[in-house]
Design brief:
CATH class of the largest domain: Alpha Beta
Radius of gyration: 30 Å
Structural class: alpha+beta
CATH topology of the largest domain: Rossmann fold
Strand content: 25-35%
Organism: Acrodontium crateriforme
Number of domains: 5
Protein name: Ribosome-releasing factor 2, mitochondrial
Subcellular location: Mitochondrion
Number of strands: 39
Largest sheet: 7 strands, mixed
Helix content: 25-40%
Bound molecules: guanosine-5'-triphosphate
Pfam family, one: EFG_C
GO molecular function, one term: GTPase activity
Shape: globular
CATH superfamily of the largest domain: P-loop containing nucleotide triphosphate hydrolases
Number of helices: 21
Length: 892
């Protein structure tokens, strides 16, 4: 028996059985790998990024993400004992709510080295003949939540990842949420490695799961690790297909002591396993040859012997395929992290197969009021136009080419705040990913979303919940800025040489934004009421903090009732927010029951409504006016010629059109004799104030007090009649609010508003036996309509199937046979086979508490995910039923 991975070894050489002493010194970033730097899309590649992987762990809930992450931390030497999800001692699930529920809620960003650093030993010289995993790399890992309510957390993490490990439960196979996160990762073109976990459990079916990767995820499984079953059909180790070795893990061990078997040794000990390993190697080489010409050459050089190709050649070819075809080729590894089996080969694969930060496509950015889009590198190199090719917003604003390139040179850093966490001990922590340049300690950062400046007085690297002080966060790295007062999740931060802290960089650079994440509409809400007046301030601050952390939460204050509503994407989402608010942030508030967030839509256009707001604001008189018409969004609207229109898409399918005299960015009139805007209210400020006022008015519908949906608002701001000597931005905002409120009321008086309900697109995975009862329940009891009935019927002999995605023929997928399927030893359970997928549209109201019902219909095996499909107008009959139940307190 040898101690593997305690010390690095090139696994494909004899050195593995006589471990090399060439371990890694504390600092590993001095080596140069110029050939990778050549492919970079960033202006300057820090050496550090060459040995960094920013990866995430994605999966269906309970697949074992946190358990696997804990093993990664243990083997990397970051923890001395293995944390356990079930007794709440994990490093990554560190929020009390996470530990109490045993689930991951907030993505935890952790950094560690793989292979582990061994201080005092010589750093090996990098060589192209050794795998990358022979040298220590910094892994920035983000453990993401699996529950559908936290999809936004997953998206936010995906946004900053360069690669992902997708963990599958080897018993359940590919589950509904796995498909969802897999597709979301595909949308960001993120290369993925699959880890089939829980192979120690009864009913584990590696072969079936591998076939499902092809048929349900639409990727060719490149099987790199296969389970090594013992004579009782239990998982005893792993077959390493790349290195052609058997890895035997002693039962009950911590996974560090592994016995290695060469192919010959394996042949003598377990010929079935040896034959399977050769079959897997053959399949891997064939698959790679289909996508990589260099592999075809290697195959020919090896006299067409699949086994003779070197592990290094296989790894390099696999890497090329994963990077070039992230949607098509998915390396697959096997293990059981709870039993400490198979995690180190997975870590090697992260280093060997997933991309460097600089190997990722250029990050998408937008700039200027018209949102010109392009790549960050393109923008920084001056190749992206800074002004729309259409009519320029302002003739005076055109920047000369020279000025532009000078301005671009002054951009020192561009980073994304991808996560904000209010830590009870350390205060607010802002997690950032740097995309260009580097953030230095004490840097002045301009927030391009909030248009304000903050100083990064300290910088940290987080090792789960331990912080290490650092001097800078270079490009491609993830780090933490503690103590920022304003930055929110999703904000872009830039540092700019010579910028005035108050005004920031010059326009339009001051509006540069890394592509934001679309936030889905909230469908549940709770009321939040302070226990006493004295608590109001603290509650407001706490809600502000929650919103900084999680932009998928919404807070609105009902002006008439004075009640505050907190809205979110799911029941669990709001439960957790409530726990954070009351438990962690100690807000003394009464939180109402969770209710469905219906919407309200007008059915007829209002007349033109003109309001003049004329009141004291903050002790000073302020006056402004505007004219409004509201219409159902499908109705056309005319805009008078000669003026300029500014169009905005608002939440809930609402649109806003603002008509002004033709003004330049500074608020000067260009074409007619209308008075200009005062210098205190440039055009951007005018438009932002109107938008704020309109959004506040739309938060409460005129009849039922639900937010307004599918409505088009047209505001005319005429500087001749709406502007006064004492007009302020706040007065404009108030004028817009009251005029829209009045227009909505007038429309509702003329014709009743309609209630709209969220209708969900539900994807359910069930076994064939339960299919009939699930479909019947959906369509009769829940008023849903079935959109599709997909079959993932895979025969266990791998020969035939009725199902094909993206030209993946299941018969061509290599997958070893599973013990219960007759390959090794029969098992009593065969959970997971013959799963079907039902997609249906169902009103959210009918889906409340569905999981429990589904479990009872399917003997505990059914799973589902849902997303908002759309808000649908309710018939008068349905409206009556819903209100009736609400009145009797039966609504959720
Ligand atoms: N038998 C067995 N159980 C496992 C294995 N891996 C994880 N588990 C168990 O599965 C359950 C879920 O594991 P987690 O690691 O919390 O799963 P997760 O994917 O992080 O879950 P969420 O964070 O809630 O999405 C726990 O009870 C683990 O002990 C495994 O390899 N074998």
């Amino acid at each position: 028996m040898i101690s593997a991975w305690l010390c690095r070894r090139p696994i494909h050489t004899r050195a593995f059985s006589a471990p090399s002493t060439r371990c890694i010194k504390a600092r590993v970033f001095s080596s140069s790998r110029s050939r990778y730097a050549q492919s970079t899309n960033q202006t300057a590649v820090d050496e550090t990024t060459l040995q960094t992987r920013n990866i995430g762990v994605i999966a269906h809930i309970d697949a074992g993400k946190t358990t696997t992450t804990e093993r990664m931390l243990y083997y990397s030497g970051h923890t001395r004992r293995i944390g356990d999800v079930d007794d709440g001692s994990t490093v990554t699930d560190f929020l009390p709510a996470e530990r109490a529920r045993g689930i991951t809620i907030q993505s935890a960003a952790i950094s560690f080295f793989w292979p582990p650093l061994s201080p005092g030993q010589q750093q090996p010289t990098l060589s192209n003949s050794l795998p990358r995993s022979a040298n220590s790399h910094l892994i920035n890992l983000i453990d993401t939540p699996g529950h559908a309510d936290f999809t936004f957390e997953v998206l936010r993490s995906l946004r900053v990842l360069d690669g992902a490990v997708c963990i599958l439960d080897g018993v359940a196979g590919v589950e509904a949420q796995t498909e969802k996160v897999w597709m979301q990762a595909a949308n960001y073109s993120i290369p993925r490695i699959v880890f089939v976990n829980k192979l120690d459990r009864d009913g584990a079916a590696f072969g079936r799961t591998v076939r499902e990767i092809g048929t349900r995820l639409g990727a060719w499984p490149a099987v790199c690790g296969i389970p090594w079953w013992n004579e009782k059909g239990r998982l005893a180790g792993i077959g390493d297909v790349i290195n052609l070795k058997g890895l035997r893990y002693p039962e009950g061990g911590d996974g560090k002591q592994i016995t290695l078997r060469s192919l010959d040794e394996l042949q003598a000990e377990d010929s079935t396993m040896a034959d399977e390993l050769k079959a897997a190697r053959t399949a891997l080489v064939e698959l790679l040859s289909e996508h990589d010409d260099q592999m075809v050459e290697k195959f020919l050089d090896a006299d067409e012997d699949h086994v003779a190709i070197s592990p290094q050649d296989i790894t390099e070819s696999l890497r090329r395929c994963v990077l070039a075809f992230p949607q098509t080729v998915a390396p697959v590894f096997a293990g059981a992290s709870f039993r400490n089996i198979g995690v180190q080969p997975l870590l090697d694969a992260v280093v060997d197969l997933l991309p460097l930060p600089s190997e990722r496509p250029d990050s998408q950015v937008s700039i200027g009021p018209s949102g010109i889009k392009g790549g960050l590198s393109e923008f920084l190199s001056g190749k992206m136009p800074l002004e729309s090719s259409k009519k320029p917003e302002s003739k005076s604003k055109a920047i000369s080419k020279e000025k532009q390139s000078l301005a671009l040179k002054n951009i020192e850093t561009c980073a994304l705040a991808f996560k904000v966490v209010a830590d009870p001990k350390r205060g607010v922590l802002v997690y950032v990913r740097v995309y260009s340049g580097s953030i230095q300690r004490n840097a002045t950062l301009w927030n391009t979303t909030l248009q304000n400046t903050e100083r990064a007085q300290r910088l940290w690297k987080m090792y789960a919940n331990e912080a290490v002080e650092i001097e800078s966060i270079p490009s491609g790295q993830i780090g933490v800025i503690p103590g920022l007062k304003f930055a929110r999740t999703g904000d872009t931060l830039i540092s700019y040489t010579g910028a005035n802290p108050k005004n920031g960089p010059p326009a339009p650079i001051n509006s540069l934004q890394l592509k934001p994440i679309d936030v889905p509409p909230p469908v549940f809400f709770v009321s939040v009421e302070p226990n006493s007046l004295a608590e109001e301030k603290h509650i407001k601050e706490s809600l502000d903090l929650l919103l900084r952390e999680d932009p998928s939460l919404y807070v609105s204050v009902d002006e008439e009732s004075g009640q505050t509503h907190l809205a979110g994407m799911g029941e669990l989402h709001l439960e957790i927010a409530r726990d954070r608010l009351v438990g962690d942030l100690k807000a003394k508030a009464r939180i109402g029951k969770i209710e469905i967030g219906y919407r309200e839509a007008i059915s007829t256009a209002s007349n033109s409504v003109t309001e003049v707001f004329d009141r004291e604001v903050g002790g000073k008189s302020a006056k402004a006016g505007c004219t409004v018409i509201v219409r159902p969004s499908h109705e056309q609207q005319d805009v008078s010629s000669g003026d300029t229109t500014h169009k905005f898409s608002l939440h809930d399918n609402n649109t806003l059109v603002v008509t002004t005299p033709t003004l330049d960015g500074e608020g000067q009139t260009e074409t007619d004799n209308s008075p200009p805007l005062p210098s205190t209210i440039p055009l951007q400020t005018l438009l932002a104030s109107i938008q704020t006022g309109v959004s506040a008015a739309l938060a409460r519908g005129p009849t039922h007090a639900y937010p307004v949906h599918s409505t088009s608002i047209h505001i005319t701001f005429d500087t001749t009649i709406d502007l006064f000597p004492n007009t302020t931005a706040a007065a404009i905002s108030s004028a817009a609010r009251v005029s829209v409120q009045r227009a909505l009321k007038e429309s509702a008086q003329a014709s009743e508003t309609v209630l709209m309900e969220p209708v969900m697109l539900v994807t359910i995975s069930v076994d064939t036996d339960s299919l009939g009862s699930v479909v019947h329940d959906l369509s009769s009891a829940r008023g849903g309509s079935v959109v599709s009935l997909g079959s993932q019927e895979i025969s266990s002999d791998n020969k035939s199937s009725s199902f094909m995605i993206d030209n993946i023929d299941p018969a061509r997928i290599y997958a070893p046979s599973d013990p219960f399927a007759g390959g090794h030893v029969a098992s009593s359970t065969s959970a997971g086979s013959d799963m079907k997928q039902v997609v249906a549209r169902v009103p959210l109201k009918e889906m409340v508490g569905y999981l429990k019902h589904l479990r009872s219909l399917t003997g505990g095996r059914g799973t589902f995910t849902m997303v908002v499909d759309e808000f649908e107008r309710m018939s008068a009959q349905r409206q009556k039923i819903v209100f009736g139940e609400m009145f009797r307190g039966e609504d959720y």
